Model the fold of this input.
Amino acid sequence: MNTQANAPSQSLAGFAAMLREHGLKVGVSEQQAMLQAALALGPLQGQRLYAAWRAMACHSARDWRQWPELFERYWYPQRLKGQVRVSGQMRPSRDLRQAVQDLHKNMEAPAASVPGKAAPHTASDAPGSSQHTEDAGSLRAMGGASRHEVEVEALHQRDGQMWLPQDLGTLQQLAKHIAARLRPRPTRRWHSAQPGRRLDLRQTLRRSVAWGGEPLRPAWMVQRREPPRLFILADVSRSMESHAPLFLRIARAFAVAAQARVFVFHTRLAEITLLMQRDSSAIQEKINAVTAGFGAGTRIASSLQDFVRVHAKAQLNRSARVWIFSDGFDTDNPDALPAALQAVRARGARVTWFHPTRAVPAAAALQRSHACVERFYPLASLSDLAVASRSLN
Amino acid sequence: MNTSTADLDSERALREQLQRVGYLADADLATTTWLAGRLQRPLLVEGDAGVGKTALATALAKAQGAELVRLQCFEGLDLSQAAYEWNYGRQLMAIRLTEARSASASAKESDVFARDYLLERPLLKAISQSGPCVLLIDEIDRADEAFEAYLLEVLADYQITVPELGTLRAQHIPQVILTSNGTRELSDALRRRCLYHYLDYPTLAREIAIVKSAVPEADTRLVEDCVQFVQRLRTEDLAKTPGVAETLDWVRALHQLSQHTLPEDTAVLLSTLGCLLKTREDRFMLTGERVRQLEEGRRSVGVAEKTDAVMAAT
Done:
């Protein structure tokens, strides 16, 4: 194989692999489109290529926000400070202009490449792509400092210290059971169903054409019901260190069973829904990496405000349920938490608080927030969740 | 290389065309819109209400002299409202007329299920256009998942399958723009068929340029003051953040009141804030004092003022 000729495609495949590692959905078609755009725009159009690839690789606001950092990190690693360098290994060239120029050359001189050998489109096709994903793609590089390395290891060990397969099975069953119990909200919309409560006039007329206009086969409709939208906010601060793995396991079960959106918070808030929905052994490590930089105290009120204003801005409504897994100890002003919870309640969402202690924590902020929280539940084990499942609706 | 230069020119031309019809797109948005047209891919634009998502489609249609076909999505939108519907009344009339003309001759099924009896709804109308067309699918997040699934065929292959008639393919591929406010998560399948652009609130300079272009009769000083005020207002904890449309309304209102700068009198300013603030809570939160602070460019209450306030309270 002509490695020189494939280098730009490899770079692109490596970039795509890194994007996938960070939760962006970049498949073969996206890679092909990125390649097309690179060829159409030319090597001197860095900014335009940046915009074009962003439009192709990003599929949500979350991806959109991540893009500038990911692009810089892959194509211009020298501009970023605090990176962990992997010594002793040669990286393939990551100069964007050079890569696109090479692509053009390859296109212009097809004889140079091996006939019948397509350029790798996926990370697994690309030789050395695993190295890409390990050094540039790893979120571990975010923190950069050795202190973070230690944190990751410690949390990783914690994840492996518990949970037998039967426990996981029980948790999944419980999650399914609770998800089924969450009361669906009737909407104003009606949809066709047999038998139904209301005559579907349009469909009945449509059917009547077959009998010359005689409505011999009436169609019926029932009111459509939508399951509530579930948001889980798990506290992963130092004070919750021993409970965080349980919270994350439970959150993951609901992310799968009830399509819950899952967030973790400490001094800031981060969404981890995508990581939760994947079945990978490295989830815990990735979650730790996402929460890199979390330190100092727990800022529950600020995280909740961020949740209401940015992350769930358009989705918090009457059918939303917000579950907070935390001990309630907040370094924000004690008045800030009731105000933040009030903002959630003002959107019509129902707030349920799960605390790891038997009694409701005595934290001042939480004590002032009783009016905004529908119910408090202790949550220190699976049996607590089983007890809670009887009254959660 | 020549292709790239030509593309660069056409992209710049698109940006200028949009500017001529009053839509000031930044370089990234112009690139993405141009690319969507070139690759014949739909463009999904997300962002808060009032940042100019719908305006992009209308401006694009105007700039390119294309027909704008708009599909406004809502909960319960179905095929018969979005794509096509058989004209039942006309079909029945045809059957009755055929029966009346001759007792022996009855209408054939193929007669009443012909294109003449098909009522075009926006999707079918867009793919039936013989000339350039911009299809705006507005607020797709308000439609149901079932409708979203139906859209996949239209957006991927630009065709609509009518069981009684067959597959109707687009004669001229329309440029499709979908907008979403994020009230519901869209499916991955739909997202992956589209190019994506997140439209944020414009920067200070861009918003000033937009307002100047839309309200040229307003005083420059007034425009700059108003836009600066709105930009600061957006950093406040509001239930409904004012968009560009609100800024335009406000500038127009102040211009109508013959103001050349932001009014010195806070009461006058407060009386016009209805153009920017659309909920009771927001209006209640923005007191005269806070308005004055925003006007002066302060983001929070100063320590001295806080102390004064505490002293006054005690």
